[in-house]
Amino acid sequence: MTSTVPNAVQHTDATEPITMFGPDFPYAYDDFLAHPAGIGQIPATGHGTEVAVIGGGLSGIVAAYELMKMGLRPVVYEADEIGGRLRTVGFDGCDPELTAEMGAMRFPPSSTALQHYIELVGLETRPFPNPLSAATPSTVVDLKGESHYARTIDDLPQVYRDVMDAWNRCLEEGADFSDMNRAMRERDVPRIREIWAKLVQKLDNQTFYGFLCDSDAFKSFRHREIFGQVGFGTGGWDTDFPNSILEILRVVYTEADDHHRGIVGGSQQLPLRLWDREPQKIVHWPLGTSLSSLHDGAPRPAVTRLNRTAGNRITVTDADGDIRTYPAAIFTGQSWLLLSKIDCDDALFPIDHWTAMERTHYMESSKLFVPVDRPFWLDEDEATGRDTMSMTLTDRMTRGTYLLDDGPDRPAVICLSYTWCDDSLKWLPLSPNERMDVMLKSLGEIYPDVDIRKHIIGNPVTVSWENEPWFMGAFKANLPGHYRYQRRLFTHFMQDRLPADRRGLFLAGDDISWTAGWAEGAVQTALNAVWGVMTQFGGATDATNPGPGDVFDDIAPVELPED
Fold first, then answer.
1. What is the pLDDT at residue 16?
2. What sign for the dihedral angle of Cα 365, 370, 371, 374?
């Protein structure tokens, strides 16, 4: 039984769990992290040397943590607070355990490198209540004023199953889905590369919507419309229709759209716990050392200027006016900041990399949460026998409404609306209370007998990531023709390919990865950058545990012609 509407093809004969292993760079980051030899070391002559890490989100904290373990001294700069888009907030006047995930809130099991760090710091996860998932008591799909209540997809009208079947056929016929999914489960690198090389050349110029339209399975506009509004896995995906189909294939091949789990107590705990963690295996620094202790409890403030100085060093000016110069630096913030908020020398990067950053396309995203007295939605409607309210997908302003509880007798949280792109921009001019009023009106039209407002026990909390000055958007999503740009950014850690006077500054973060919008991409690119810094300092990985740069030439991303 599929758990989403509609979902990618299921494989009952699969024996290996899927991971975010490729398709662009099929490297086993989870095995790299788990190896007893560790991820590398540097010569003792480099121990204690400062390396700037700009950005205290997950990527920056992972990079800083691993550099510290190698014996370097990471200096973390953070404009706001540790966590980045792993941002967990509370509600004023409410139980502090009642929280809202303003950024990342659901993580697929295929995020295996991320899971390494979740387990390392002792965090627990639990199933996230996506549409029609096993963790969701019920789902309501409301389109064009008509609502359907369901616990599984079999409870929905036949047209929804037809749409699911059309998506499955579209993937098989246009993207070799089963073959690629199987190759990724088996970590069959030659087969992954063979399939993907053909698809990159064939589909780089194609939009998600164009890919659907080219399939006989989606001849019906009505089917495409339903698919866009209801989507698969996480809800409606019509906001992604203008994006490159390659971005969507990366998600479905790795099942990143399904079986999501949330972090108990909030995702921001992960970078915060790494910040405070005292590793037992550490070089140079005494036991009891943590990132927090190296920074006297707080990171350096926002970076305002980056430039190169004599000896090809990286000079960093921060908001306090402090100027420090480093032999190496890692930049983990969203790349647009290098074009706008931070005064940068052109000499920091080759011109082709500047072009790639300028062309990066970010998605907008908004959320609004309210605290409620209890999970009243689980009350049985006496007239229908159904849940009073359900996880809701709709074409109304709210689009996706999620119901989050921690037990029947405890306060709970409703994500009244989670939207992207144009749907997110509609909320931008409105205050939190104005947003809430519109959302409650929309939900009132779906649930006319439910008084949501009477259960609200605190003020709403909201975010529009495009309006956050140190983010300027939620996450990268490549447009057609952007594959070459993304390849430049992802491969930047291989600095022996760069001019000698353009080395020493490394890019990381989920927008540098192939899987933007997923925390796994932030972790993977952090590890790439750590490998790059280690190599710059004359270090190396153990021969039994080669790093991403050691095997790069064997599994490098497809390179498309520039002419």
1. 63
2. negative
Q: How many C-beta atoms surround the C-beta of residue 191 within 10 A?
A: 16
509's CB contacts (< 8 A; 6+ apart) are 55, 57, 59, 60, 331, 332, 333, 334, 335, 521, 522, 525, 526
One-letter amino acid identity for 59? Answer: S
This prediction has a pTM of 0.96
Nearest to residue 390, comparing CAs of 152, 189, 202? 152
> Which residues of the chain fall below pLDDT 50?
1-14
Q: What single string gives the DSSP state of each residue in 419-449?
A: EEHHHHHTTTTS-HHHHHHHHHHHHHHH-TT
pLDDT in tens, 408-430: 989 999 999 999 999 999 999 99
407 exposure class (CB count in 10 Å sphere: 0-12, 13-18, 19+): exposed
How many Å apart are CA 187 and CA 552, to the nearest integer?
16
Sign of CA dihedral 276, 278, 281, 287: positive
Whole-angstrom distance, CA of residue 328 vs CA of residue 317: 15
- Alpha-carbon distance of 60 to 69, in angstroms, equals 14
Cis geometry, peptide bond prior to residue 557 (ω within 30 degrees of 0): no
Rounded (10°) angle between helices 483-490 and 351-359? 120
Main-chain phi, psi angles of 396, to 5 degrees: -80, 180
Please list the residues that pair with 412 across neighbouring strands: 372
CA-to-CA distance for 271 and 267, rounded, in angstroms?
8
Asked if the bond preceding 301 is cis, omega within 30° of 0, the reply is no
Q: Tokens representing 505? A: 């500054």
At 140 the three-state DSSP class reads strand
Residue 325: helix, strand or coil by DSSP? strand
Residue 428, C-beta contacts closer than 8 angstroms, at least 6 positions apart: 366, 464, 466, 467
486-526 pLDDT, tens digit per residue, is: 999 999 999 999 999 999 999 999 999 999 999 999 999 99
Give CA–CA dist 496/468, Å, rounded. Answer: 35
Q: Quick check: 530 and 59 in contact, CB under 8 A?
A: no
H helix or E strand, kind and range, residue 75: strand 73-77
The pLDDT tens digits for 324-350 are 999 999 999 999 999 999 999 999 999
Residue type, 540: A
Residue length, the chain? Answer: 563
* Eight-class DSSP state of 14: -
- Decide: residue 85, CB within 10 A, 0-12 exposed, 13-18 middle, 19+ buried: buried
What is the number of other CB atoms lying within 10 angstroms of the CB of residue 90? 16
> Is beta strand 50-54 parallel, antiparallel or unpaired with respect to 329-331?
parallel
